[in-house]
Amino acid sequence: MQSVIQKIEEKFKKGAVVNVRSGDTVKVHQKIREGNKERVQIFQGMVIRTDRKDSHTSRITVRRIASGVGVEKSFLLHSPLVLKIEVTKRSKVRRNYLTYMRERTGKAARLTSVDFDRNAVNNVHDKAAEEEEAKLAAEKAEAAEAGAAKKAAEEAEREAKVQAAVAAHK
Questions:
Q1: Which of 69, 72, 97, 159 matches a 20 to 30 Å C-alpha distance to 21?
Q2: How far apart are CA 160 and CA 21, in angstroms?
Q3: pLDDT at 16
């Protein structure tokens, strides 16, 4: 029988998560909220650590070089803010924690590539995440449509003012 904690964890676990390993190069699509706006930001880098794979608190640490500075971010795989993880490259590594990659730059930081079926790894259908992405896209389209309607109304108002001014000068 499951404990109460396990039942709660199962409720918040995502239905399907991409199988990510250390040494993979991934694109993580993360939802960012700035004020009252939401957008999707993509963080691309190499996975240098995977933690608690089968748990609801499973986490990956992704490292990339941005403007000559190493940047690391940890992502909870089952977080609702992580919309999608896409594996772009898989490398042969013999460790789970690739902390030695922090000291390496340039050609020394290269890893040997391994062939893998990109479609099979990345084709994970999580209904909730897909619905959330569709909702964000619909909100964005609705906002754009409202902006276009407002702009058209302002343009019509300006045109009416121009016509009135032309009629007054005749």
A1: 69
A2: 63
A3: 75
CA 15 to chain centre: 17
pTM: predicted TM-score of the whole model, two decimal places: 0.67
Using the structure block, give the residue that is written with the tokens 């040494």.
23
* Phi-psi group of 67: left, alpha or beta (phi > 0 → left; psi -120 to 50 → alpha; rest → beta): left
- Give how far the C-alpha of residue 16 lies from the chain's centroid of Cα atoms, to the nearest Å: 16
State the residue for tokens 């993979």: 24
CATH number of 4-125: 2.30.30.790
Q: Domain boundaries in the chain?
A: 4-125, 127-170
Which segments of the chain does DSSP mark as H helices, in order?
A: 4-12, 118-122, 127-169
Residue 50: how many CB atoms within 10 A of its CB? Answer: 19
Taking alpha carbons only, the member of 36, 130, 39, 125 closest to residue 83 is 130
Tens digit of each residue's pLDDT (9 = 90 or more) over 10-29: 777 777 778 888 988 999 99
pLDDT at 1: 64
